[in-house]
Amino acid sequence: MGQDNFEQTIIFKVQAEEANQKRAILLKVYAALKEKGYHPINQMVGYLLSGDPAYITSHNNARSLIKSFERDDLLEELLKNYLEK
Question: Helices marked H in 1-85 — which ranges?
């Protein structure tokens, strides 16, 4: 097995792990919004479109969690998952 194959595998694993982290964060934010009585989809769309963190509750650290990734990265992941499934 050559060095190139090993590096490609590492890259794949890192990308898959990052995608899993984004999904986990979105699920935690969704749950926090729901617990506080908000409509989670509307609030998350508002944040993703505007960038205004006020759309996301600070309950269960949701606001900090969602800000740990760039909005365009989250949108890319959402669109990719939507189109691939």
Answer: 3-35, 40-50, 62-66, 71-84
Q: Reduced to 3 states, what is the DSSP secondary structure of residue 38? A: coil
The backbone region for 51, taken as left when phi is positive above 0, alpha when psi lies in -120 to 50, beta otherwise, is left
Say how many CA atoms lie within 13 Å of 7 toward its Cβ: 3
What is the tens place of the pLDDT at every residue in 8-55?
665 666 678 888 899 999 999 999 999 999 999 999 999 999 999 999
**What predicted TM-score, i.e. pTM, was given to this entire model?**
0.79
Neighbours of 68 (CB within 10 A): 11
